């Protein structure tokens, strides 16, 4: 494996970028949504709402959604292009929703958290994505929208300032949304259970990351098996359980789940993990 990547970096840089993402997208600042005439990530800024299609006139509905929600659709396009070339940097470094659940989760004692590593994440993720799309086409997509973490987390962040957000959060649907985000986010080991299992943008993102892995010009987090001694310290740091021991005792990485957070790079005592090209 040609060494064309970086080995170490500052973990604090990623957390700083997460805080910048929160300031840009979430209340009370919500700088990016306000530039598009919105107050939060619902509406035209949402990177998921353009998926909501009517079973009648799918192509026309998709075209109309792309026009009405061009900002969110453009954001998804930019995310996927970045992932193709440089790995899942949006999810790990800038996403205000996943970043919030991760930061909150880090402040909760480990004994109170649930590990979802018993699930085969890619199979669960893509099965849910199919159900998500099918629900949209069946006309019940609004259910997923109301429970969506891109709705719940911004409403929680802005609840001190907007009374209608508090009304929603204390409704039966709002409480169900809080429970979903809490179980799969705040009280999940690593804080990224929702990201790894239920996020439709994450499902598309992970597929792009997996497909572009072996292209020589793309940058990913990679393991040099010639240096790996199988100690497993990186496994304990992976918040999306993308690492496991293979039959030869070395660490195997699943790029369909790897979030390019680089936490494993900082954990590896052998400097066997790097971020870069093949």
Automatic annotation (TrEMBL):
It comes from the Bacteria. One of its GO terms (cellular component) is plasma membrane. The keyword Magnesium does not apply. One of its GO terms (molecular function) is 4 iron, 4 sulfur cluster binding. Residues 219-248, 249-278 form the 4Fe-4S ferredoxin-type domain. Gene3D superfamilies: 3.30.70.20. Keywords: 4Fe-4S, Electron transport, Iron, Iron-sulfur, Membrane, Metal-binding, Transmembrane, Transmembrane helix, Transport. The chain crosses the membrane at residues 12-32, 70-90, 126-147, 168-188. This is 4Fe-4S binding protein.
């Amino acid at each position: 494996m040609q060494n064309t990547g970086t080995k170490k970096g500052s973990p604090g840089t990623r957390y700083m970028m997460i805080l910048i993402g929160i300031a840009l997208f979430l209340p009370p600042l919500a700088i990016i949504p306000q530039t598009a005439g919105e107050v939060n990530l619902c509406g035209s800024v949402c990177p998921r709402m353009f998926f909501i299609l009517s079973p009648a006139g799918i192509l026309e509905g998709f075209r109309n959604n792309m026009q009405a929600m061009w900002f969110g659709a453009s954001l998804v396009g930019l995310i996927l292009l970045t992932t193709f070339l440089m790995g899942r940097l949006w999810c790990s470094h800038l996403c205000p929703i996943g970043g919030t659940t991760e930061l909150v989760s880090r402040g909760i004692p480990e004994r109170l958290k649930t590990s979802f590593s018993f699930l085969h994440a890619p199979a669960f993720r893509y099965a849910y994505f199919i159900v998500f799309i099918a629900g949209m086409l069946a006309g019940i997509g609004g259910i997923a929208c109301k429970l969506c973490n891109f709705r719940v987390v911004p409403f929680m962040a802005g609840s001190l300032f907007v009374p209608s957000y508090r009304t929603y959060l204390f409704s039966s649907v709002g409480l169900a949304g809080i429970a979903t985000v809490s179980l799969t986010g705040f009280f999940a080991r690593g804080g990224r259970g929702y990201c790894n299992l239920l996020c439709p943008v994450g499902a598309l993102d992970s597929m792009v990351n997996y497909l572009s892995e072996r292209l020589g010009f793309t940058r990913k987090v990679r393991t040099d098996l010639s240096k790996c001694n199988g100690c497993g310290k990186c496994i304990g740091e992976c918040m999306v359980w993308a690492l496991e021991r293979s039959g030869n005792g070395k660490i195997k990485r699943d790029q369909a789940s790897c979030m390019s957070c680089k936490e494993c790079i900082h954990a590896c005592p052998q400097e066997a993990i790097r971020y870069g090209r093949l």
